[in-house]
TrEMBL record:
This is Transcriptional antitermination protein, putative. SUPFAM superfamilies: N-utilization substance G protein NusG, N-terminal domain, Translation proteins SH3-like domain. Residues 3-92 form the NusG-like N-terminal domain. GO terms for cellular component: cytosol. Pfam families: NusG (PF02357). GO terms for biological process: DNA-templated transcription elongation; transcription antitermination. PANTHER family: RHO-INTERACTING TRANSCRIPTION TERMINATION FACTOR NUSG (PTHR30265), TRANSCRIPTION ANTITERMINATION PROTEIN RFAH (PTHR30265:SF7). InterPro entries: NGN-like_dom, NGN_dom_sf, NusG-like, Translation_prot_SH3-like_sf.
Amino acid sequence: MAQIKPNGLRLATQNLARQGLAVFCPLQQASRRIRGQIRSVTKPVFPGYLFVSLAPAGGEMRAASYTRGVARLVTLDESGPKAVPDALIEELQARCTPEGILGPPEADQLDVGDRVWVTDGPLAGQVSRIIALAPEARIWLLLDLMGRQTRVAVKREAVRRD
């Protein structure tokens, strides 16, 4: 794993790929207020970090640590960089779309009555219960808004099990 310099994701990714190293940076969809409007943006799941596949005995570690856009390789002690388990990387890659956007885990199946937390959109931060599951990946929630129970439809990707 490499720590990247501020705003250096694109530069680090390009330069590491030019060296023939496999690079992985899972992304997620989020909502941000931009000029008074709520917009959907794509941002890294692990801001400031990038997974890099390096041969442990090769000169790739030294080259990767001095690559433009890379601040340093992540180490736990003086013995050098530690490998992230392959199973973790494979699980993350399996959950990503072809564009690299991380989806929900398969085990996170939602049912009517489940308590969920809204993570995206103008209702982010609200906790509610699912009252219905609709086609097209929509979920109906019953939210307490301004002292009233209000039925609201949200995207499946915008909620997480509480």
